[in-house]
Specification:
The N and C termini lie far apart (115 Å). The protein is built from two helices and 20 strands. It has 363 residues and is mostly beta strands. Helices cover 7% and strands 32% of the residues.
Length: 363
């Protein structure tokens, strides 16, 4: 009898398992497999396609569960909020989104470190036309600066402003890459070559009355390097800055000067007005080498002070013999003049920027 009863019970249990159902409210314990759940149930650790709109009543929408529990997305619940996420290519589209400038916060760790090239063509939004325009940042900057500055830059303005280029001595005295004004590639070197003549020279000079000190502040900036230093066999003198001669010592100017036999081979900072300079030019304290360095000269509005800087560090300040007024106007440029030897010696530079901030902006 017992085997028969067991068989009956077993059959009944199998039948019940196959056809018997319970309301979901009757299930109060245990674990249901994911496969038994409706496809509308949100799963914690599985990928799902969500087609419906999801609304959240809490301000913190998605919070990372690890420590610390950082809020990933958050809404202030004051209105409709839009969170834009990158697509598969990593692109975020902001078309149709409006943001106040004050709402844009870039943390120090995420600031852009590779700046857009000043001469690259990039899109700008033209609000007046409600359209994007293609423009070079340099051109856009010039348009605004011209109202406040007298600006010369070696890519364009000085192309017509190098009024006094000159070379002397054959063979080889020349200005290399002169027609390129930095050239097609930003940073292309322009070279002044003395040639092999004992007195060979090369120079570039603006108008000799381009700069008038005493009303507005002025700045000259460049990057210069020398291939081989001057010595007793092949001797030369390099000059660059505010100056009115490219063939010899300027009459009026504020400029850098170097030759190996003066000032212990260190850069001199020269202030010269009407052929008069201090008994000893200011010693920069910086020994000349063959690397490219940044050089700048800043003249205050009153022309009572001029600071000389190398690689953005002030090395000397002049307060006397600063040319001032229209009668002592000067220009800007470079000269490389040899006085001994038969081997070519070069001065290299990569750019020239000269500007003066106007006390009264132009209209």
């Amino acid at each position: 009898m017992e085997p028969f009863a067991n068989d009956i019970l077993s059959r009944l249990a199998g039948k019940a398992a196959a056809v018997h159902t319970h309301s979901a409210s009757d299930i109060t314990s245990g674990t249901l497999d994911d496969g038994l759940l409706s496809s509308n149930v949100m799963l914690l650790d599985a990928s799902q396609d969500v087609s419906g709109v999801k609304r959240f009543s809490q301000s913190a929408l998605i919070v990372r569960s690890t420590t610390p529990a950082d809020t990933v997305f958050q809404s202030d619940a004051t209105g409709n909020q839009i969170i834009t996420l990158p697509d598969a290519s990593g692109t975020v589209s902001l078309d149709g989104h409006e943001h106040a400038l004050a709402d844009i916060d870039i943390a120090g760790a995420t600031e852009q470190t590779a700046l857009q090239g000043l001469t690259d063509r990039v899109p700008f939004y033209d609000a007046s036309a409600a359209a994007n325009r293609i423009c070079r940042p340099l051109d856009l900057t010039r348009a605004g600066l011209r109202k406040s500055l007298i600006l010369y830059h070696d890519r364009a303005e000085i192309a017509a402003g190098w009024a006094n280029n000159g070379t002397s001595g054959t063979p080889g005295a020349s200005i290399q890459n002169a027609s390129n004004y930095i050239g097609a590639a930003v940073g292309q070197i322009i070279t002044l070559l003395t040639g092999t003549a004992t007195n060979g020279r090369a120079g570039r000079l603006s108008s000799t009355v381009a700069c008038v000190f005493g009303t507005n502040p002025w700045r000259f900036e460049t990057t210069v390097g020398l291939d081989i230093l001057s010595d007793g066999t092949n001797t030369y003198t390099s000059r660059f800055g505010f100056m009115d001669s490219q063939s010899g010592e300027p009459t009026d100017g504020l400029y850098w000067r170097y030759t190996h036999g003066t000032n212990g081979g260190r850069w001199e900072c020269v202030a010269r007005a009407n052929n008069v300079e201090t008994a000893t030019a200011f010693d920069s304290g910086i020994t000349v080498d063959t690397a490219l360095h940044n050089f700048s000269i800043d003249v205050n509005a009153a022309a009572s002070s001029a600071t000389f800087s190398i690689d953005n560090v002030v090395v000397a300040t002049a307060t006397a013999n600063i040319p001032s007024g229209t009668s002592r106007a000067t220009g800007f440029g470079y000269s490389q003049i040899k006085s001994a030897g038969t081997t070519n010696r070069n001065l290299n530079y990569t750019y020239t920027t000269v500007y003066s901030e106007l006390s009264t902006p132009a209209t």
